[in-house]
Amino acid sequence: MTSALRFALRAWYAFTLLRQRRRPQPTDVPAVRSGDPIADRVLVVGNGPSHGWGVLSHQLALTGRLAEAVGEYTHRACDVDLIGAESMDVRSARAWIGDHELGGYDALVFVLGFNDALRLTPARDFERALARLLDDVLPRLRPEAVVALGSIPPVSAFGAFEGLVARITDRHRQRLNAALQRVAALRGVPCLELPGNSGGAPGAAYKRFADRLAFGIAPRLLAHRPTPAPRAPLAGRDWQWSGTEQLVELARVGGDADLRRLADIAQRSFGVELAVVSLVDGDRLFYANNTDVMPPSIPLDLSFCKYTVESGEPVVIPNTGRDPRFADNPLVDVSFINFYAGYPLRSSEGDVIGSFCLQGSRPRRESAIAQDLLRQLALEAQEVLRRYEGGAQPEARVLTTLARMPAPTGPIVDLDEAGAE
Questions:
Q1: What separation, in Å, do the N-terminal and C-terminal C-alpha atoms of the chain show?
Q2: 3-state SS record for the chain
Q3: With CB atoms 3.0 to 4.6 Å apart as the test, which of 1, 71, 200, 229 could cross-link to 204 if both were Cys?
Q4: How far apart are CA 355 and CA 357, in angstroms?
C-alpha cells in the first residue's frame, strides 16, 4: 500500500461526498423516539451504514430499523439516537460524541470504519484510535449498559462504492475488521459481523444490519432491564442563541432561500466548492445551508470556523495542510478541504454566533480573496440571521443588494491561482 494510492483514494472519497447530494439521503432528525417512558434507549455512534444512503428518512435507515428490530426481540419499545455523519472517521469519533450525556442510554453500538476502509487508513492507526475511543467512552456509561461493535461490511453493499474501489479496498477492510475484533476482545465487548450485499433496495440492507445488531444486544438488554421502570425523557439541547433552532430545522429542507442565494453567489464568485453559514452552539457547529453536502453539524473543535468565532475577526487559511492548527485534524483529512476563509457573524446584541465561510479543495493566496466582497456577503447573511432572533417567523423577502443579483455564470474575482501556495 503506497502513500500515493492512499492520497488518491482520499481525494476520490472527498469528491464522492460532494456528489452525494444527487443521491437520496435522510433529511430528518437522526433519532427515533417512541414516547414510551419505559422504552430501551440505544445510541449508535457511526458512519457508513449508519448514514442512510438511498433513503429519505432515518426511520428507513439503520436508526429506525434498529429500533424496530430490538423491539421485535424484547416486545417493548426502543428509542434510538445516532451520533455521527459520513465525514466522521474513527479518529474523530470522540470529538463527535463531545459532551453528549451518555449515562441515559441502555446500550451503545459503534458502527465505525467504513470510510477508514475506503481511504486505506493504516490498520495500526485504526486500532490505536479505536482503543483510545473505547477507553474514553466506556467509563462514561452506566455499569450495566450494553456495548457492541459492528464490523465493517463489504463496501460493495452500497451501490456508490462498487467496482474497482470495492476490489482495492476490500482486503484492507478485512485487516481493519481484524483490528476491530482485537480491540473488542481485549475489552470484553462483542463484535457483531454485519452482512454483505444480497441485493434489494437500500432499506433492505439496513434491515439486515439492524437484525444482526439487535440479535447481539437485545438479549443483554432483557437481562439488564427485566422489568423496566418509567423514567424522564432524555434532555434536549438548550440553544444558546434564539434563532439557531429554527435555522437548523430549516436547513434540513434546504435552508433559508436568501442564505442559499448568498452561498451560491459566493461559490461562483470565489471559485470554491462550498460556501456555508455556520452557527455555533456549545461544542457543536451547525450549518444553516448546504446540508445536502455537509452534515447538519460537526464538532466545533474540529472546525475551521472555530478560529473565526473565537477571534471575532476574518480568518483566511491559504493552505490547511501547512497550518499547524490542522496538522492532525481528522476532519480535514477526510474532507480534503485545503483552503478556508471565514467572516464572523454577530447577533443584534453583538455576540459572535457563527461565520460566513468559503471552503475549497485547492490552496490559494490570501491576497486572491476579495475581502470587500466576502465582507458584503457576510453582512447580508448576518441580516438574514437576525430575522430569526427570538424565534421569529420571518416572511420570505429578497435582500436589497447581493441577494437579488443574478447568480454569476463564472468567476468574477481574480483568484490568482497561479500564485497559490
A1: 28
A2: CCHHHHHHHHHHHHHHHHHHHHCCCCCCCCEECCCCCCCEEEEEEECHHHCCCCCCCCCCCHHHHHHHHHHHHHCCCEEEEEECCCCCCCCCHHHHHCCCCCCCCCEEEEECCHHHHHCCCCHHHHHHHHHHHHHHHHHHCCCCCEEEEECCCCHHHCHHHCCHHHHHHHHHHHHHHHHHHHHHHHCCCCEECCCCCCCCCHHHHHHHHHHHHHHHHHHHHHHHCCCCCCCCCCCCCCCCCCCHHHHHHHHCCCCCHHHHHHHHHHHHHHCCCEEEEEEEECCEEEECCCCCCCCCEEEHHHCCHHHHHHHCCCEEECCHHHCHHHCCCHHHHHHCCCEEEEEEEECCCCCEEEEEEEEECCCCCHHHCCHHHHHHHHHHHHHHHHCCHHHCCCCCCCCCCHHHCCCCCCCCCCCCHHHCC
A3: 200
A4: 6
The answer to whether 366 touches 399, Cβ cutoff 8 Å, is no
Sign of CA dihedral 235, 241, 243, 248: negative
Query: What gap in Å lies between CA 330 and CA 353, rounded to an integer?
Result: 24
Residue that has been written with the C-alpha cell 490559494 in this structure: 364
- Topology classification of domain 3-224: Rossmann fold (3.40.50)
> Tens digits of per-residue pLDDT, 274-328?
999 999 999 999 999 988 778 889 999 999 999 999 999 999 999 998 899 887 8
Closest CA to 209 of 217, 222, 183: 217
Assigned CATH class of 244-419: alpha beta
Domain with CATH 3.40.50.1110 in the chain: 3-224
Contact, 91 vs 112, CB < 8 A?
A: no
Partners of residue 328 on adjacent β-strands: none
Burial of residue 131, with CB atoms counted within 10 A of its CB: 0-12 exposed, 13-18 middle, 19 or more buried:
middle
CB 123 within 8 Å of CB 10:
no
Predicted TM-score (pTM) above 0.85: yes
Conformation bin of residue 388: beta by default, left when phi > 0, alpha when psi is -120 to 50? alpha
Q: What length does the chain have?
A: 421
* CA 376 vs CA 262, 344, 396, 401: distances in Å: 10, 12, 20, 9
Strands 191-192 and 274-281 turn out to be: unpaired
